[in-house]
C-alpha cells in the first residue's frame, strides 16, 4: 500500500482554520498564533495563544492543541496527525511536538528569533532524537506574517501612547 498523497490544497484550507484561531488570540490581546491538529482529514483540536489569559508561559497555541488532540484520541502519540500553526514553533513547542510524536507540522510565518522548525534550529528533525516530524514551511506565510506584524505594531503604538 502506498503512502497517501499530501494534498497541498488541504494545507491551505487547514492553515485557514489556524488563522481563524489566531484571530481569536488577537481579539483577546494575545500574540496572534493559532493552531489546529488534523487526523484523517478532520480537525480534532483547535487552540490559540492564551499566555496572558491563563497567566501561563506554556499556554502557547501548539501546547494547548497537543493536549486537546491527545485527549481526543485517548493517546499521547500523535503519529497520524498534522499540526497546522500560524508561526514557526518555539523551542518549547518543538520539543513537545517531538515528544508527542506529531507526524507532520505545517507552519506559516517563519520566526528568525526563536523558530525551531528550521529557523534558528531544527528540533523537529534533529537526527539524535527518537522521532522526527515531517515539516512544511511557509503555507499562507504572508497572511500569517501580516497578522503578527499588525499585532506588534499596535503593541508598540500603545506603549508609545502610554509614555507620552
Give an account of the 3D structure.
- The structure is a single chain.
- With 164 residues, the chain is an alpha/beta fold.
- Helix content is 42%, strand content 18%.
- It has a five-stranded mixed sheet.
- Strand 1 and strand 2 form a beta hairpin.
- The longest helix has 23 residues.
- The termini are far apart.
Question: Helical stretch count?
Answer: 5
User: Sheet bearing the most strands, described?
Assistant: 5 strands, mixed
What's the SSE pattern? HEEHHEHEEH
Q: Could you list the spans in which at least 5 consecutive residues all have pLDDT below 50?
A: none
**Largest sheet strand order:** 2-1-3-4-5
In which range does the helix fraction lie? Answer: 40-55%
Shape: globular
Distance between the termini: 66 Å
Cα radius of gyration in angstroms = 16 Å
Assembly annotation? single chain
Number of strands: 5
Amino acid at each position: 500500500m502506498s503512502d497517501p498523497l499530501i494534498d497541498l490544497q488541504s494545507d491551505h484550507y487547514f492553515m485557514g482554520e489556524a488563522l481563524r484561531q489566531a484571530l481569536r488570540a488577537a481579539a483577546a490581546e494575545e500574540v496572534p498564533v493559532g493552531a489546529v491538529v488534523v487526523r484523517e482529514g478532520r480537525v480534532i483540536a483547535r487552540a490559540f495563544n492564551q499566555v496572558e489569559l491563563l497567566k501561563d508561559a506554556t499556554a502557547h497555541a501548539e501546547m494547548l492543541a497537543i493536549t486537546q488532540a491527545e485527549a481526543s484520541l485517548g493517546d499521547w502519540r500523535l503519529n497520524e496527525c498534522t499540526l497546522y500553526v500560524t508561526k514557526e514553533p518555539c523551542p518549547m513547542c518543538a520539543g513537545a511536538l517531538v515528544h508527542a510524536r506529531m507526524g507532520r507540522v505545517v507552519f506559516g510565518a517563519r520566526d528568525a528569533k526563536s523558530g525551531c522548525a528550521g529557523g534558528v534550529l531544527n528540533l523537529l528533525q534533529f537526527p539524535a532524537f527518537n522521532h522526527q516530524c515531517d515539516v512544511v514551511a511557509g503555507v499562507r506565510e504572508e497572511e500569517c506574517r501580516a497578522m503578527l506584524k499588525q499585532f506588534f505594531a499596535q503593541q508598540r503604538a500603545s506603549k508609545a501612547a502610554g509614555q507620552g
